[in-house]
Amino acid sequence: MRFRRNQPAKKPLPEPLELDILRFSHDGRGIAEKDGRIVMVAGALPGERVTARIDKANTKLWQGHAMTVHQPSEARTEPHCAHFRQCGGCQLQHMTLASQHEIKRTAVMDHFRRNGIELPEAPAMIESPPFAYRHRARLHVSGKGQIGFHNAQGNQVVPVQQCPVFTEQLAAAYEQLRTAAPLKGLTQLELVVDDSCKMGAVAVKGKPEALERFHRWVEQQGWVWNQPLSYAAGEKTVTAYPGDFTQVNRAANLKMLETGAQWLNLNTGDRLLDLFCGSGNVAYFLSHRVGSLVGLEASEAAIRQAKAVQNGDAHCQFEVADLFQVDVSGMTLVRDLNPNVVVLDPPRAGAENICRHISKLTGLDKILYISCDPATLARDINLLQQADWCLSKLALVDMFPQTKHVETIALLEKK
């Protein structure tokens, strides 16, 4: 007979308590203090007095959510979405857009300050429509066949009837999906609309028979699941399949690329190295402005898509390379290019070692760094500054309004 060791009883969570919210955290929660502990309160704003329920508690940190707001802040606004309190997709709908921008700007500046980088002024914000901006969505299906998004903890599907950040076309397709599609047996799918308003939907996870049934339904709607969709990239049209990475907010992406192009002020004498190039989002926006271009990316599918739309552009080359495993400064393709401009668009992990590698490139004089994580961006810029690079321009991109996420674009120049 096996005996199970008795587990210590969990301490009961504190009773709801009244708190004065002192400041913001970087993820948009309010911060209070109680008996020497930090209390993080979702749905609370600085200057407010709230009654909060504690959801998690340890010795130094309590985490909870606002149940009642007794003294609302002027920054508070009514959420557009009926599912806001349950759905984990948006974190900031309860505050004005100006306050959202303030949080994001403060978070970026704090990360830079921690890395010893003092900004002479607060960076500008490249704005986006606050709602109806999302062209693509990753959706989850519950065991009961209800479709929606994960909750904030990521452990439960919140059934969602409509989402205000969807574009009009995506919202209409979602309603059709929610009310008519055979969803039972699926767990995850992606819904996307391309630049010609063509719909794509692909089931990513689920039982084999459920996947087959769903894809038959997709075809019956005149949508696609295993055929490419089309997207503008500068003067080119790139293709991607439903489920592939594409830009969620195309309006903000275009503004960001236009800003980067203006900063770089490229000409046909420039030689551009595009690292983490994907299927050519940045490369094809800039390719007609430069004399030669090399794009490197780990995804074979993305490189195939980039090559598919070259149309004889002999001055552009795209190759597969795992940039976290190779020293790009030693690659023959890169040495032959002898780039004077580098574009970096890494994942959230940043590009710490890549920054060390490109610092060895003797002809390099400009780096355009596009980041989805201000913490790793600040770390990498600090590293580049130690290698005699100077941060000359910085802007934030509100790529995902109503959420805690912010993109950043930075221009560095050789001293």
From TrEMBL:
Key word Iron present: yes
Positions annotated to bind S-adenosyl-L-methionine: Q247, F276, E297, D345
Superkingdom, natural source: Bacteria
UniProt keyword list: Iron, Iron-sulfur, Metal-binding, Methyltransferase, S-adenosyl-L-methionine, Transferase
SUPFAM superfamilies per the UniProt record, alphabetical: Nucleic acid-binding proteins, S-adenosyl-L-methionine-dependent methyltransferases
Record: active site: C372
GO BP: any one term: rRNA base methylation
CDD domains for the chain: AdoMet_MTases
Any GO MF annotation of the entry: rRNA (uridine-C5-)-methyltransferase activity
UniProt domain TRAM: residue ranges: 10-68
PANTHER family: RNA M5U METHYLTRANSFERASE (PTHR11061), TRNA (URACIL(54)-C(5))-METHYLTRANSFERASE (PTHR11061:SF30)
Family: Belongs to the class I-like SAM-binding methyltransferase superfamily. RNA M5U methyltransferase family.
Annotated protein name in UniProt: 23S rRNA (Uracil1939-C5)-methyltransferase
Species in which this protein is naturally found: Reinekea marinisedimentorum
